[in-house]
Design goal:
CATH architecture of the largest domain: 3-Layer(aba) Sandwich
Structural class: alpha/beta
Low-confidence stretches: 30-34
Helix content: 25-40%
Mean pLDDT: 88
Largest sheet: 6 strands, mixed
CATH superfamily of the largest domain: P-loop containing nucleotide triphosphate hydrolases
Order of helices and strands: EHEEEHEEHHHEHEHEEH
Strand content: 25-35%
Strand order of the largest sheet: 6-7-8-4-9-10
Shape: globular
Distance between the termini: 39 Å
Oligomer: single chain
Number of strands: 10
Number of helices: 8
Radius of gyration: 20 Å
CATH class of the largest domain: Alpha Beta
CATH topology of the largest domain: Rossmann fold
């Protein structure tokens, strides 16, 4: 049984190129709700999450709402193990897969095929599985002979199709997504959405950050509104969406 348990989780991100408290930093501190402070060693600290308490059970589909800078991506990175809480406890039960940055590990000087193996290795997908699925991955990308060319010769759309195809090889118990992925033309987007839906359905827990009300209400069983690094509202998707989107309209 997969689960997520966060207890009083706080994440402070240091900014090391800052030498002293200035008028500008003071103003920024007020403007950010007091989330920018100064550490004992003299560098600035941004509090991205503050005292997050969260329990997610097997089978839940969680949608994260909030403006840019609210802490959605930071929370996803805590769940994925990329960020360690400054204080508090984060307990994750289950294999985690992340679609936060699908282009991570893509080498522009390597060919498309070489990058399939590179990205798969970062995702801890065994080489044997890549070998078995290579032809279907190449077919899915619709890159044709470009699959044997260096990625630096690709357009941005081609690059994203390659990254998306290999990233969705994972079959995690806990799936983390930062926004619904938009790749390629309309026909390819339909293929991508179908592939992503299959991935979501195979996972035990989904946590997705999005600005789309339709996506949250369609795909999620629960929604969480983050504001200034804190949970403002946690509940049924329509209830949370009504409160959030009525406020920002």
């Amino acid at each position: 049984m997969s689960f997520i348990s966060l207890k009083n989780v706080t994440v402070d991100i240091p900014i090391y190129n800052s030498q002293s408290r200035s008028l500008k930093k003071t103003v920024m501190g007020f403007a950010s709700g007091g989330r920018i402070g100064l550490s004992e060693k003299g560098f600035s600290v941004v509090r991205s999450l503050s005292n997050i308490n969260l329990e997610i059970k097997d089978g839940e589909r969680i949608g994260l709402l909030g403006p840019n800078g609210a802490g959605k991506s930071t929370l996803l990175r805590v769940l994925g193990g990329a960020y360690i809480p400054t204080s508090g406890e984060a307990e994750i039960g289950g294999k985690v897969g992340s679609l936060i940055d699908v282009s991570l590990g893509i080498d522009s000087e390597s060919t498309g095929i070489e990058n399939i193996y590179l990205r798969a290795a970062l995702l801890q997908v065994p080489k044997k599985i890549v070998d078995e699925q290579l032809d279907s991955i190449i077919s899915f990308t619709e890159l044709g002979e470009f699959i044997n060319m260096p990625v630096r010769t690709y357009s941005s759309g081609m690059h994203m199709r390659l990254a998306f195809a290999v990233s969705t090889m994972i079959r995690p118990e806990i799936l983390l997504i930062d926004e619904w992925l938009s790749v390629g033309d309309q026909n390819f987007q339909r293929k991508a959405e179908k592939r992503l839906t299959e991935l979501i359905e195979s996972s035990s827990i989904l946590v997705i950050a999005s600005h789309s009300r339709n996506l949250i209400e369609k795909c999620c069983t629960r929604a969480i509104w983050l504001s200034n690094g804190q949970i403002k509202l946690d509940g049924e998707p329509k209830q949370v969406c009504d409160s959030y989107f009525n406020l920002i309209q």
